[in-house]
Hints:
The protein is α+β, with helices and mostly antiparallel strands.
Amino acid sequence: MQVSDTNRIFESVSDSSASEISLAEAAEIVCNLKAVPTLDEVKEWFSKLLLRQRDYDRYRLFTDRKYARNLVARSSFAELLMLCWRSGQRTPIHDHGGSVGVVMVCEGLLTETMFEHAPGGRVRPYNTYRWGPGAITGADVPDVHQLLNLQPAGRDMVTLHCYAPPLSVLNTYSPRSSRVGRWREGYFTGGAGI
Ligand SMILES: [Fe+2]
C-alpha cells in the first residue's frame, strides 16, 4: 500500500550519515511525498530537524491581526508551515478535520490545551502543556486542542507545523456551546519555494 512509499522516503532521510535535516530538506521531502505520512513518521522526521533562524527567517513573518500562517512547502500529501504568534494570539478550539498534525517549537513558550468531548456537544479541557524550544508535540486525527501564546506582552512565539494531508475544513468547539463551527484556514504568506 501507499505507506511503503512513505516509509521509503523517511528511510532515505534516516539512512543518511547526517542524522540532521535542514528546513530546506524537510520542504523537499514534503514536495516529494508519494503518500500521506503517519503521525509517527512526521514526528520522527521533525526530531531530526535542525532549525537555524537564518534558514527560516524568510518565513518568520508576524501580523498583529492574528497569528500568521506562513507556508513553507505543500504537496497533495502534507504541508509544512511556520506559524508566528504575537503575545495573546491563539487558535480556536479545534480538531484537524481528518489530518494529523505535528508541531515543533522554534522560539518562545507554546501553551497547548487538550479538550475532550462532553455531553451535549460541548468540550472540556483535561490537560494543558507548556512546550519550550525544541519540543515536538503531535495531534492525532480525533484530538481536539487549542494552541496559544500566553507569554507576556512583547514575547513572540514561532512554531513549525506539518499537517498530513494538508488541512482542509476543521471543526471548532466551545466549552460553553454545543455548536460545532466549520473553519478553513488561509495562509498569511504562501507559495511553493518562496
Ligand atoms: Fe491544531
